[in-house]
Design a protein that fits this description.
By secondary structure, the chain is α/β, with parallel strands linked by helices. The chain has a single domain, classed as Glutaredoxin (3-Layer(aba) Sandwich), CATH 3.40.30. The chain has four helices and five strands, in the order βαβαβαββα. Strands 1-3-2-4-5 form a five-stranded mixed sheet. The mean pLDDT is 97.
Length: 98
């Protein structure tokens, strides 16, 4: 389930459980190629943040390349990786924290 995140809902949506967060931009070619992989993961909660629209969140997490993924557990960052990834890779990363 893809969920758009912004300054208003970020803390509420990420404070409980294991969450996969993708930082992206509208001009990023790899982000566009990443989208179909994420859409196939329809049973997993995935938050997406447009770093151009939400620069404060991107700055808080020191995001400078796209796409960048964070895994948060109960609101705390437990892992980070960048670049386009296959759904199998993303699932294996998430499963380590569930």
């Amino acid at each position: 389930m893809l969920t758009e995140l912004n300054n208003e809902n970020f803390n509420e949506k990420t404070q409980n459980g294991v969450k996969l967060i993708e930082f992206r931009t509208s001009w990023c070619g790899y982000c566009k190629k990443q989208q179909p992989e994420l859409e196939q993961m329809n049973k997993i909660w995935i938050g997406q943040i447009d770093a151009d629209s939400e620069p404060m969140i991107a700055a808080k997490y020191n995001i400078n390349s796209f796409p960048t993924f964070l895994i948060l557990k109960n609101g705390e960052e437990v892992e980070r990786f960048s670049g386009m990834r296959k759904k199998e890779y993303l699932m294996s990363k998430i499963m380590r924290y569930i």
